[in-house]
């Protein structure tokens, strides 16, 4: 049996509806940003009174003068968030500073998060400590820790309060409790289809289906597709080649693929998504492209987590005015047609671009994608040592092309249109980078490990999972910069002194 709202609640709703501010608010429509901010309070079998009471908690905590929410309240809330953030950074730093000398070394980081611990918090703490190392010298000072940022585990109270400010129905710079509660009731009503004041089972299912596209649309601001434009979306997990440039920093691997545009008369609104950081190379009938939207599941880790971050994606072959790099989390990525991820991307495109894609397809990996034919071609792997490029170690190259069968593609960073500035890799990522370093004589293959015999700029990015290897440092060779991923780095003569996160075995 569904319980109907009591008469007192109906009366309260009527009073709210009669107030001038409420009337103005009721004429407004709920924005994706507003829905996203309060969707966590909207769940199955929740009454409107419960929803409003829970959603109003940040408002009441911040409204210290009990006169409504204004810019002064937001300033205080912002300072509170910053103070908590500094405390979190200091706590992480001090928990790893085992000798209390004001510096966290690489050895202390390894001891603070033992390799055999599988708790997510251990891996997360080590990643945070790595981001604290501002100058990349392998040592973290308290000053570096306080200057860094900690990714928020959930939306901050400050960001929710900023959404509350959008409920200022009479535009006087102050949001009253009446204005806020009326707007929250409007948001609830958007999903209370039968108007009984309760989110029942069917409404809860509709809410869960709508939640992800709404959260994505809250961060999406994309150009609308023209009526004469064909919207074509294609997704890859990764490209089959490694670019010589990166749009995601030196410590993250990137891939690249070519996009061939077929001849035709219809202007194209292209949406290209990838899981990996990606540089798309556009060729063919490029004049057909009216708009290229790029999205990736990766983003620049150097950007502060609480600031807008672009997707780690870029393109060459088109002018900058035709390229839009979607904010991280805006569209997401997919590579399998008919999957839940594809449906989510399709819905997000409809929300952000104004229409459902006319054609959508994907593939796990490719060296070339042809559009709008929606075809993808994989690169062919060659194990012939003679196929290794000049300057690359043939044996390590054979390992490399198992992961990147398209090899290396030279890309001029100045030609890349991207959200974050493109730069050349100091050391190419993964096994491709290892093959280059061995070919240059900076690293030697010694049994099942790679022996670093000369100083190198940094470790290759992406040496995790199946890419993980074991390094040893020759005497006198400094530990390279860069993240070791799951790989192991030991100093020769002291095999117990693990300098990376990987598990080091005795030689």
TrEMBL record:
Stored InterPro entries:
EF-hand-dom_pair (IPR011992), EF_hand_dom (IPR002048)
Picking any one GO molecular function of the record gives: calcium ion binding
Q: Which domain of life is it from?
A: Bacteria
Listed A to Z, the keywords are:
Signal
SMART domains, sorted: EFh
In the UniProt record, does the keyword Signal occur? yes
Sequence ranges of Polar residues compositional bias: 295-309
In this chain the EF-hand domain maps to 155-190
What segment(s) does the record annotate as region Disordered?
295-314
Quick one: signal sequence residues? Answer: 1-24
What is the protein name stated in its UniProt record? Answer: EF-hand domain-containing protein
Natural source organism: Methylopila jiangsuensis
